[in-house]
Amino acid sequence: MSAVKRFFKLYSLPMYILVRPFAGFYAMKFEEKGTIKLALFNFLLLCLAYGFSNQYTAILADDRHPYMINSLFTALYMAATLLLFCVANWSVTSITGGEGRFKDILMAICYAMTPLVLTVFTATIISNFLTADEMGLHTLMISAGFFYFILLCFIGLLTVHNYGAVKALLMILMTFVAILIIVFLGALLFTLWTQLGSFISNLYTELVFRF
To answer: What is the chain's Cα-based Rg?
Structure first.
């Protein structure tokens, strides 16, 4: 089997989720057809898509200078956001009867990124062939990919946790509350750690000068 055929065979589940999300996420969770490696590969594709977009989107659609954009920082920011959301969601669903494991949550979010991967790559290429009056098409494609990504995230989390629609909505709201709490506690710990480091440094300096 050629490498191309092997790739499309492995990538069949994300594409299946794209057209039949409920059945696709059910297969991922309960039939164990999904793999964490493929999910992370899909996330890597999204990072590459945004890196490609940062460098090659037409100036009419994005007037930022390519040398002012750090694609590595963008990828790290996306990874931190993904990890934060998954931790917050797992924390909330662990106490609200959710059936999804941390692995399931991560896989569902990463598989849901497929429309973003496709639209960002496509919109970037198309932007170089559009006139100023046609740039609305570029914005429409990016927006459509983002909103479908949000919808797939909701369906994926609803499926892996085996929630109803109302409970899933409440779970999403609680997840964002948990994110705020985690960020607050992280900032508080960082501040305390910084102050402790400053205190130790000042104490060391004082002892050196005295003795």
So the answer is: 22
Judge whether 7 lies within some domain. no
CA 63, CA 151: separation in Å to the nearest integer?
29
What DSSP string runs through 3-56? Answer: HHHHHHHHTHHHHHHHH-HHHHHHHHHHS----HHHHHHHHHHHHHHHHHHHHH
In a domain, 187, yes or no: yes
Distance of alpha carbon 5 from alpha carbon 14, whole angstroms: 15
Q: What is the pLDDT of residues 101-149, one digit of tens each?
A: 999 999 999 999 999 999 999 999 998 887 877 788 888 999 999 999 9
* Predicted confidence (pLDDT) per residue in 26-83, tens digit: 999 888 888 898 899 999 999 999 989 888 888 877 777 666 778 788 889 999 999 9
Pairwise CA distance, residues 68 & 198, whole Å: 33
pTM, two decimal places: 0.85
Report how many domains make up the chain. Answer: 1
Residue 162, Ramachandran bin (φ over 0: left; ψ between -120 and 50: alpha; else beta): left
Domain that holds residue 63: 13-210
Query: Residue 115 in contact with residue 18, Cβ under 8 Å?
Result: yes
CA-based nearest residue to 30, from 183, 170, 180, 162: 162
CA atoms of 85 and 10, how far apart (whole Å) = 26
Q: Residue 68 to residues 40, 44, 49, 55, 207: CA-CA distances in angstroms?
A: 27, 22, 17, 10, 45
AA identity, residue 121: F
